[in-house]
Specification:
The chain has a single domain, classed as Flavodoxin domain (Rossmann fold, 3-Layer(aba) Sandwich). It has six helices and eight strands. The strands form two sheets. It has a six-stranded parallel β-sheet, with helices on both faces. Strand 3, helix 2 and strand 4 form a beta-alpha-beta unit. The radius of gyration is 17 Å and the shape is globular.
Length: 202
């Protein structure tokens, strides 16, 4: 019982989330192959896997192109397996409903563009990896109205490391629920129905 997890990451938080999902699945008795989307083997075959999870982060309003290309290349196989997609962005941590609507639209556009219909979709909040940003971003970052900000002292503490908004319990629940569903789900014929566009918030 082997599950493939492919992820795209810009500042490292999606990689951490994918790793947390992998550990949860291993605790449920699955073998897991965790693959960075930038280093996918050219001859990768999904035949050995009973399920696939794909994760990507939002950067400048879009997900990683190499993740979209991976999905397009393997979508026929992926439609026959239990599959899930999770997105990572700061929009998920924003209390403004408009940001969640925008994220839902971005997820819908990505999946429609890739032609993929995952069984499970989740959205997780990311992190502020301050020291990894371009110097221009570091100049404007203290002025951004981000959730959880608590004044200049906290800003300095956050600037020294990554400030996480990720709900790790939600990540574990997502993995645990998917493990249960994947264990009992039969392989499916390829389907061509339209993507409903519903994002299950993490």
């Amino acid at each position: 019982m082997k599950i493939l997890i492919v992820y795209g990451t810009s500042a490292g938080q999606t990689s951490k989330i994918a790793g947390h999902i992998a550990r949860t699945l291993k605790d449920r008795g699955y073998e897991v192959d965790l693959v960075n989307g930038r280093t996918i083997p050219a001859n990768l075959d999904l035949a050995p896997y009973v399920a696939v999870i794909v994760g990507a982060s939002v950067r400048a309003g879009r997900f990683q192109r190499y993740i979209r290309d991976f999905v397009k290349m393997h979508r026929d196989q992926m439609q026959r397996l239990p599959s899930a997609f999770f997105s990572v962005s700061l929009s998920e941590a924003d209390p403004n409903p408009k940001m969640h609507t925008r994220l839902s639209t971005q997820v819908t556009h990505f999946l429609e563009e890739a032609g993929w219909h995952p069984d499970k979709i989740a959205s997780f909040a990311g992190s502020i990896a301050y020291l990894r940003y371009h110097w221009i971003m570091r100049l404007i970052w203290p002025r951004l109205p981000l959730p959880g900000r608590g004044g200049a002292r906290q800003d300095r503490e956050m600037a020294d490391s990554a400030y996480e908004y990720t709900d790790w319990d939600a990540v574990a629940r997502f993995a645990d629920e998917f493990a249960t569903e994947a264990r009992s789900a039969p392989r499916k014929p390829y389907r061509v129905d339209s993507y409903p566009g519903q994002v299950v918030s993490g």
